[in-house]
Amino acid sequence: MHIAVVGLSHRTAPVEVREKLSIAENSIQPSLAALKGNDHVLETAILSTCNRLEIYTVITNPEDGIKAVEDFLSGYSGLSNEELIPHLFSFHHNDAVEHLMKVAAGLDSMVLGEGQILSQVKKMVRLGQENNSLGPILNRLLTQAVSTGKRVRTETNLGTGAVSISSAAVELAQLKLGQSQGNDRLVSLESEKVAVVGAGRMGRLLIQHLQAKGCSSVVLLNRSKERAEALAKDFPELAIQCRLLGDLNDCLSVCSLVFTSTASEQPIIDRSRLDSCKRSSFLRLIDIGVPRNIDSDVSGLKGVESHDVDDLQEVVSRNQEARQQVALQAQGLLQEECRLFLEWWDSLEAVPTINRLRASLESIRSEELQKALSRMGPDFSARERKVVEALSKGIINKILHTPVTSLRAPQSRTDRQNALSVVESIFDLANKKGSD
Ligand SMILES: NC(=O)c1ccc[n+]([C@@H]2O[C@H](COP(=O)([O-])OP(=O)(O)OC[C@H]3O[C@@H](n4cnc5c(N)ncnc54)[C@H](OP(=O)(O)O)[C@@H]3O)[C@@H](O)[C@H]2O)c1
């Protein structure tokens, strides 16, 4: 058995490729079932976020298992292998474990140390467990990744002052406004007529950051008004005007800065919509949706500047150097967590021998117990029988404790294999049954 991860991220693929491989929550179940349907895939889990799609697997062998995942990704995205494979990465065994720990800690994120990724890793675990696609190995690995993510955030400064995609989006707006005024600083958005489209988690965070950056009023558009109104109630100091998505054109006509953050699978703003609006001012669009909410055909349109999630790299890079130093603090901790998982994984090699040893001693114990009890005859009470049975089990467990612990203890592969073959031979386990 092998652990592997195959996927793509903002590091390997542009948003136009990533959006074809964004697997919405309601498509996770059939996707897990399709992957598990392959004979080479024993366990699997899917991590789908705006910046990455990663498929974690336990596979029978790297070649067939990785090919099975690549074929699934190609089928799902509609991209040919030639178009897709240059954007994919795959890691195997130690490297796959290290990669997951890094992802959960936020060290592989576009915005170093951001917190959203940890809840997305937790969601991967929950969906895997609900859909029975995890077995003992991925369950252990993914659960450990979640606790590693939490540890990194509590035991290092990585989470302190970390920005997020939404705060980077607001910073990008400030930077672009500053650049349009001839300087390279982040300027206040106070004078902007701002709209946010989408009242989900990202919409909420955008509004939070807009308020922090000096915005005093925002138009909030959403498909359903109730959600927008509920969100607005949480920001009593900000004048939030809630509108339905049907009012989008009115909004595009009067606003100067529009953020889009909906989970729509199709673009909600394109060139023809913008052409049909009578715009009164220059319009800056910032789209953090993946799939994108703004069609690429708006590019080059006069009086419009449009940015997608990949453009956030410009502001992220400005903050990255200081955060790299903080990230170094987390590296030692990640190495320790990887080592613990790999030691556990190595110790699994001892399980079949340990099971056979237990089964062998158990059969001797129960056979000898039956012989002894039959000699005692009916005078022996039920209570006395129980005491003798417990005594025999206790002796076996005490005898097994030290050899089992030492067989499972961290050691080199050769040492473990030597120890296992000694145990197999002295207890003559080769032909004994035990659950593997
Ligand atoms: N979560 C993250 O960490 C993260 C980070 C960066 C980017 N993003 C991207 O940001 C977008 C929103 O994510 P989220 O986490 O805020 O999602 P969310 O909490 O589930 O909210 C989804 C939002 O999208 C709206 N929506 C869904 N389907 C729609 C459709 N067909 N047409 C119009 N509106 C629709 C919903 O409107 P209703 O309220 O009416 O349902 C809601 O406002 C996604 O594209 C995601 O990939 C997410």
* Distance between the ends: 14 Å
Query: Quick one: CATH superfamily of the largest domain?
Result: Glutamyl-tRNA reductase, N-terminal domain
Query: What compounds sit in this structure?
Result: NADP nicotinamide-adenine-dinucleotide phosphate
Q: How many beta strands in the DSSP annotation?
A: 10
Shape: elongated
Provide the low-confidence segments as ranges. Answer: none
> pLDDT average, as an integer?
94
Structural class label: alpha/beta
Largest sheet: spatial strand order? 7-6-5-8-9-10
> Into which percent range does the helicity of residues fall?
40-55%
- Write down the CATH class of the largest domain: Alpha Beta
> Counting H and I runs of at least 4 residues, what is the number of helices?
16
CATH architecture descriptor name of the largest domain: 2-Layer Sandwich
Order of helices and strands: EHHEEHHEHHHHEHEHEHEHEEHHHH
Q: Briefly note the CATH topology name of the largest domain.
A: Beta Polymerase, domain 2
Task: Label this structure with key terms.
alpha/beta; 16 helices; Rossmann fold; binds NADP nicotinamide-adenine-dinucleotide phosphate; four-stranded antiparallel sheet; 54% helix; 3 domains
